[in-house]
Amino acid sequence: MKHINRPLVCALLAASSLVAPQAALAATSREAQLEARLEKLEAEMQQLRADLANARQEQAASAEQAQTAIAAANANVAAANAKSDEAAAKVAAVESKPQPDGFKSGNTTIKLGGYIKMVASASRFSDGEVATNSLGRDFYLPQVIPTGGGKAQKVEDFTAKQSRFWLNMDTNVGGQSVKGYVEVDFQTSPGTQGSQRTTNGYNLALRRAWMQVGRVTIGQDWSTFQYTGALPESTDFVGTTEGTVFVRQPLIRYSAPLSRDLTLHASVEEPESGTATLGSPALTENGDDRMPDFAARLAYAGKAGEGSLALLARQVRVDAAGVGDNTFGWGVSAAGKIWLNPSKTSDVRAMVTYGHNASRYIGLNFAPDAVYDPVANKLESVNVIAALAAARIAIAPQWRINVMGSYQRVDYANVLTAATIASYNKQAWSAAANIFYSPVKNIDVGLEYRHGERELVSGADGALDRIEFAAKYSF
Questions:
Q1: 118 shares its domain with 61
Q2: Any domain includes 97
Q3: How far apart are alpha carbons 352 and 232 in whole angstroms?
Q4: Number of domains in the chain
Q5: How confident is the model over 62-71, as pLDDT tens digits?
């Protein structure tokens, strides 16, 4: 509403009063009423304006509060989302991280592992039978293959003796890590403890037991002269017996890293001489040794594969009632493995070993360390050359095949006539192929065929053909 000009109204009323006095009086009365009404309207307008300004201020304040509340809510939502994302990331990190295994005993972490393995085999010996419950029935030992033209024999064997258990221990002593390891199985316990007709019970046998402080290992372990990486995957206990270095024994070993990929191992190890007496191939553990065996191995581990070069020096000694002899023995072994794919699921591996009076380290003592001639009171030398080669090929994520070959040849001193060593081992070889399937990470199922032959100095020979099934659960 527009504001009324009061002076103008008054002038008009005054002018009209000159014309008509009575009308002027009436106009004056109306003017007063009109002014009162105008003042009332002005007051009401001012109040309305004030109310409108207050309402606008309150609306602006409410809008500002609403915006503040919305911003705070958005900030809270963002913070909640950030915390949720952080929590999800932490959960994912925990789930992706390998879960700790083992248990604590004081300040020692103890881990239990091993596997349960059952082997079923069907064997055919071309020239006779190997005694039941003997090692030659449990796994491939070329030195026990019958020779000489006996009647061929077929046998079947089931065994779980190869099942294995180990304890791995790690203790913090004054900031220094002290490690320990104990491994046992049922395969290598001497003698027969159970009957195949009833219980098939077999005793635990010590395989390895050592402690490690820094670079020093003390206890029973694989010989430093041996490169275990050359052993192929097989249903058999060894796989390439005649061609491999294979010894576990007490030792003291020092390991010195030379670079990121190269390590030098040096050790003193348990001595033992396994000799044969002229005229008989039977091996005798003399127990007359006076010096430890010395071994060293240069080990390489790189992106493309692994390599090993090992040396051995030892004394072979025989002492029979104060009469005997000793001779020097040595060996050299080169081995390695080459990866065929980035995932390292396929590879080729090989080992070549030469030994002079060192046969107990090669092929599970297929040949004697030396031959003792009691008449001349002299140990005659025995030289062996052994080799193995194998390939592991992954044909699918859960399937793989292995092929392997192995060989050993023995040369005796020239002074030993063929007649006196006719029954001694001259050579042996074998070839095998298998296929393995792993339906889950901890289960392996394999089927293998093997052919092996043994020949004596006399020329007599014999062969073994074996089909073998194995199932293993590792934990």
A1: no
A2: no
A3: 14
A4: 2
A5: 777 768 877 7
